[in-house]
Amino acid sequence: WYCNLNGVQEQDICIPDRRAQMCINNLVNVKSGNEKNDLKEQVLLSLNTESQLLFNKWKKHNSFNNEEFCNDLNRDYADFGNLIKGTDIVAHGNSKEVEDKLKQIFGENENAKSDREKWWNDNKEEFWNKLLSSVKGKGKEGNVEIKECTKDATLEEIPQFQRWVQEWGKEYGEERPKKLQNLEGICKEKNGLLNENRCNNEHECKRTCTAYESWIILKKEQ
């Protein structure tokens, strides 16, 4: 998670690394003349690349989970919707460049935001199918099997800030027990009891304690 970044419209918000690294660079390359058609092609290209990168990220860590992978696809889809509709709260780096390009295409008058939302709604089923198509065809690849992924129709209706808070809370709730279990496994005495003094005395246990404490501090700061 990336916290305290400049150009974020909500104060004290942390951005998930998934969103910070989202593949949107080519959206600034929309050609003049038939901008909306070319924008659609560029969005489809971005979604295709994004789903591949997301798949490779899960596969790389050798911890593929079809349900969580599907959740990330849904989150990416909703974030793309915010970007296109003009409700994205990230306004720095390439996100700002994309927003500037979208303002050139749709204008900045009082109807622009509704025009952007309508354009997204007119094309969003094709966008979702593109997000899925490049990974569904993989079938079984090593120990990875991509199963069906259903679109969460309500997710994009939730404000982006609220979605990210929910995403952070889910990650924390799942990660903390795993890290604590790992800590206990390394630092327990032979009698099975956890001796806190070992955090200061034994090298491997001390290193694990330090890593756990640093992670807790980071999460509190977020």
UniProtKB/TrEMBL annotation:
It holds the Pfam family Duffy_binding. Residues 12-162 form the Duffy-antigen binding domain. GO terms for molecular function: host cell surface receptor binding. Signal peptide: none annotated. One of its GO terms (cellular component) is membrane. InterPro entries: Duffy-ag-bd_sf (IPR042202), Duffy-antigen-binding (IPR008602). This is Erythrocyte-binding protein 2. It comes from Plasmodium vivax (malaria parasite P. vivax).
